[in-house]
Amino acid sequence: MRAAFRLAYSIFDKISYFINHYLQLGHDSNRVSFRGVWYEAKGKPPRALLASLASRQNWPLRGLFWLSKDLFEDEFTAVTEPDAQSLNELRNHPEHKYLPLHQEIGKLGPRAFGQSAYKGDFADRTLRLLKLVRASMIYLSLSVCHEEQARQKKSGPRKAASMPLSPWDDPWKQ
């Protein structure tokens, strides 16, 4: 469950890296984040939305932008998800610190080292995060499809080679 939480959160970084590269937004690839990829790289908070993104009529991309507001980052404290800040705090514990999970019996006391969580609460947060990742992957694929269709309209029809697909009998499939 810890690995699923950690890996699900890391997908957002990969999406932001992809968006930056695919849409040629010009952010430093080492400093791009899911919340920050939409805004100008420099400036005082609140930073301005990138003009190249504001002018696009790509509705799935806008959906991905609004989904990014469900995540908390230190630079972007305004979030739409009430649990976003605690998810962000919890993010680094399985990776870099200590995160013991406990049964829902008794009260969790303060810890000098690491952060404690109930298994049920952590499972709920992991499931919520996985749902956000699923939605972001859908928005991302739809936005790329929209961009590719727009690029094809601009460049005109292109020839594509056919690729035959032969059936392959697989005895291991049940």
Q: Any overview of this molecule?
A:
The chain has helices at residues 2-22, 51-54, 59-68, 84-96, 119-155; strands spanning 101-102, 117-118. By secondary structure, the chain is mostly helical. The chain has one domain (2-155). Strands 1-2 form a two-stranded parallel ribbon.
Query: What is the average per-residue confidence, as pLDDT, rounded to a whole number?
Result: 80
The helicity comes to 40-55%
Instruction: Give the overall form.
Output: flat
Largest sheet: spatial strand order? 1-2
The number of helices is 5
Order of helices and strands: HHHHEEH
Strand content: under 5%
The helix/strand class is mainly alpha
**Separation of termini?**
28 Å
List low-pLDDT spans: none
Number of β-strand runs: 2
Question: What is the rounded Rg?
Answer: 21 Å
Q: How many separate structural domains?
A: 1
Largest sheet: 2 strands, parallel
Quick description:
The chain has helices at residues 2-22, 51-54, 59-68, 84-96, 119-155, and strands at residues 101-102, 117-118.
List the helices and strands and how they pair.
Elements: H1 2-22, H2 51-54, H3 59-68, H4 84-96, E1 101-102, E2 117-118, H5 119-155
Helix pairs in contact: 1-4, 1-5, 3-5
Comma- or semicolon-separated keywords:
single chain, 174 residues, mainly alpha, 5 helices, 2% strand
